[in-house]
Design a protein that fits this description.
By secondary structure, this protein is mainly α. It has 2 domains: 37 residues, no CATH class; 39 residues, no CATH class. It has 3 helices and no strands. The longest helix has 16 residues.
């Protein structure tokens, strides 16, 4: 993202999820700071067309997202 790139360029600090910064951290372009402060709670939301019953494609996507985030809670840096 632009924020990660700006922080890597030395323009300041950014509080971003690990899924965005992991490549920058792995390369040494960014260093984790303030690691004693947990990230604020956040949710993942699905916005879908109105209606009582979502299409099968939408249901499958929602189920896939639920399963993925249940298996990978650290994707947002919540493992700290």
């Amino acid at each position: 993202t632009a924020l990660a790139a700006a922080a890597a360029a030395g323009l300041g600090i950014a509080w971003l999820p690990d899924c965005i910064t992991h490549e920058y951290v792995a390369s040494g372009a960014l260093v984790a700071v303030m690691t004693r402060y947990p990230p604020p709670s956040a949710g993942v939301y699905v916005v879908r067309p109105p209606g009582r019953h979502p299409t099968r494609k939408v249901r499958v996507l929602i189920e896939m997202l639920i399963e993925y985030f249940a298996r990978h809670p650290d994707v947002w840096g919540l493992d700290r």
